[in-house]
Amino acid sequence: MLEKLHGIEQRFAEIEKALAEVGNDYKRAAALAKERADLEPLVRKAAAYRRVLQQIEEARQLAEEGEDPELKALARAELDDLLPRQAQLEAEIKRLLLPKDPRDERNVIMEIRAGTGGEEAALFAADLFRMYARYAERQGWKVEVLSANETGLGGFKEITFLIKGQGAYSRLKYEAGVHRVQRVPTTESQGRIHTSTATVAVLAEVDDVEIDIPDKDIKIDVYKSAGAGGQNVQKNATAVRITHLPTGIVVACQDERSQLQNKMRAMSILKARLYEIEEARRRAEVEQARRAQVGSGERSEKIRTYNFPQSRVTDHRINKSVYNLPAVLDGELDDFIDELATRDEAQRLAALEETPPAA
User: Fold this and answer.
1) What's the rounded Cα separation, in Å, for the pair 248 and 271?
2) Taking all residues of the chain, what is their mean pLDDT, rounded to a whole number?
3) CA distances in angstroms from 310 to 33, 195, 259, 324, 335, listed in the order given
4) Given this structure, which CATH class describes domain 2-97?
């Protein structure tokens, strides 16, 4: 652990030096300041950890080699305090060392679709939408409906909405999956309990794609523009052909008067094409993620059950039940989300500890 912390402390010192020398490059200064802010809590914990290790070494040496019985007893008592502090700092540092999901601070796009159960499933989808809207309101986030397919009784066959707020994805990402409801529908004359489902997909909002084309990725050829002959034939090589080597895309431009203008136009076209490719890839990834989260909507694929007769909500992933269904539907989700986040962190810590050190 100390070796890993040493590398982080070195990087922190490099950032401090770079910030002092960055000058008027505001974009770089902002990037460095963000990285510094991300590393600072870990660097502070590392400093505290090193101090505790030093104090433990001194106390242990005194307890083992000291001549004064009273001082040796004090040293042993100090060790009794320091060793738990060492364990606590190690646990905190391990948590800080966990790789962060870069999407955690983003807004989220949520999709709720009625699954098995017909009109009752659509009404349940509407209940879930209101639940998430109330949760967002409690967090001080904003909700914006992007599209909705309503039914005649006030349900939703599907609804897609954006939740804007810092850290929205970090909290709501655990809501993805199939939600099941057990209740007596208002249209049920014999009082039988029906089971219906709705599926929830949670997607991080994606920033605009910026296309950066390294010089090594392109080949530029210049040649004389083709013309009708006579005075219109270009005597200089002003036409430009750009080949994007990774994709094989070729863009040629000869309509402008100068080589520079043709190059700028060709680069603009190439960037537009690469942007479209990136967008298509992103859309495919989003759709794949959505399908993976949603599943088929069958009753057996549930992550959470909302049982109205018992006023019970059970999250099957953590085997946790809350017997206050109205409060949960009013947006009190933190009990579930906190425990799901804790479990996720524990699993990632276990994976981190199992990862062999790099050779």
Assistant:
1) 13
2) 83
3) 52, 14, 76, 9, 19
4) mainly alpha
